[in-house]
Design goal:
Elements: E1 9-20, E2 23-35, E3 40-45, H1 51-58, E4 66-71, E5 74-75, H2 81-91, E6 92-95, H3 107-116, H4 121-141, H5 157-169, E7 175-179, H6 187-204, E8 207-211, H7 215-218, E9 223-228, E10 231-235
Parallel strand pairs: 3-8, 3-9, 6-7, 7-8
Antiparallel strand pairs: 1-2, 1-4, 4-5, 9-10
Helix pairs in contact: 3-4, 3-5, 4-5, 5-6
Length: about 250
């Protein structure tokens, strides 16, 4: 009998509110989202519409005010902090627009951080050789084998993003969350990073949720959703020709 994997994400009625200038601000108003175990989903929408807020909920960086969230079949809505921290470390990979590399560490050391977090010194020493080998292999996969010992200051924007992608993959995550991963890059470099992300997602069979302003990129994923009015709705991708969502829709 073929084993049926649980969905990577199952969200129901997610709500998130903030207070701005003393006034309540409703960002998410009942978001429902299902993402299959190896599915890729793009999210587009207006600037300030809550796309990053939604990713923070899905990545267990924040909690919803209302609603339920399941990751790989596990209800994490009200899970203790330690459980959420472990799942975020082991099962979720993040790729952000601004890389978030530590400037004093080499590319290789930045990737290895993903393996060192939450690990005792004894366990790290036992795993160190294997983790270094895997980090080096990932840097080779993203085209940076010759730059592994370089500091971020000696890397281009595209190279820094490749390091960030390698770091996100080190723990073999079931879910990749990408927040405008090409938003800080020129057109040519953006195209290269897009190809790399799509290739890696197909190779690893990880689920991926990607926030982007590029309709061209969004149209290459399995599904495109628009976050509007605090809710998600499907967008037909057939015939999309625009290079990007207008800035009012980013």
């Amino acid at each position: 009998m073929t084993e049926v994997k649980p969905q990577a994400i199952r969200a129901r009625g997610l709500e998130r509110r903030f207070v701005s200038a003393g006034q309540p601000l409703e960002i998410l108003r009942g978001v429902d989202l299902d993402v299959g175990a190896s599915e890729s989903v793009a999210i587009v929408g207006r600037s300030g519409g809550g796309k990053s807020t939604l990713l923070h909920l899905l990545g267990l960086l924040d909690r919803p005010d209302q609603g339920a969230l399941h990751l790989e079949g596990l209800d994490v809505t009200r899970a203790p902090r330690g459980v959420r921290d472990r799942l975020r470390r082991d099962r979720i990979g993040f790729v952000f627009q601004f890389y978030h590399l530590l400037p004093e560490l080499t590319a290789l050391q930045n990737v290895l951080l993903a393996a060192m977090i939450g690990v005792s010194p004894f366990d790290w020493m036992a795993r160190r050789k294997a983790e270094i080998g895997r980090a080096e292999a990932l840097l080779d996969r993203v085209g940076l084998a010759s730059r592994a010992r370089h500091l971020p200051s000696r890397l281009s924007g595209g190279e820094r993003q490749r390091v960030a992608i390698a770091r996100a993959l080190l723990r073999r995550p079931a879910l990749l969350l990408c927040d405008e991963p090409t938003g800080n890059l020129d057109e040519r470099t953006s195209a290269e990073i897009e190809e790399l992300l799509l290739e890696i997602q197909r190779e690893t069979k990880s689920a991926m949720v990607l926030v982007t302003h590029s309709l061209r990129l969004a149209g290459r994923l399995d599904r495109m959703l628009m976050l509007e009015g605090g809710r998600l709705k499907a967008v037909e991708t057939g015939g999309i020709a625009d290079a990007a969502v207008p800035q009012t829709m980013v």
